[in-house]
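Entry 14. Two folds queued back to back today. First construct below, sequence then structure tokens.
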Amino acid sequence: MSRTQASRCALSLDIEGTCLTLSDVRSRYPKLDLTDVPHGHSWEEQTLWTSTQAWGRVSFGFKAKNPDCLCSVTMRPPSRP
């Protein structure tokens, strides 16, 4: 895999089962930035909270239809120029 291809890679996980709250996430990742919010088009849209790490970014998604429970985690490498 070339460096260009690697910079476009991401790993996304759907989370089911026990409800993990934003407080649960903040206990492990205290510095989170709000990076996206639902726009009212679908109950599937997510509020995204993102933590920037040395290795890249990790985003935590909470669906509009169940905003109190974590539904996805996405990890991305750092952006390349």
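Second construct, same run, same settings:
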Amino acid sequence: MSVLVLANPTAGRGKAGRLIGRVTAELNALGIDHRIRVSESAADLERLAREAAASGVAIVAVLGGDGSVERRARVFYLTVREKESATE
């Protein structure tokens, strides 16, 4: 199973951005198939979350601060609900 990591490199005064390489190395060391998408802005991070939800990605991780996690969780949830409503 693959993991999609949505990264906000400016979170935590840039700390999240500095962790991208470490996260990649750890996931590789664990043999976890993954892809990291780095956002360019808050709007871009929201777009990436919507695309992930619409594509049916099973596992999404967010590398960012509290705001990044909360907003992406909300966007992901609402997108999945919209998709389910459309099929009913």
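Quick look at the second one. Strands lie at 3-7, 34-38, 59-63. Residues 12 and 65 are 6 Å apart (CA to CA).
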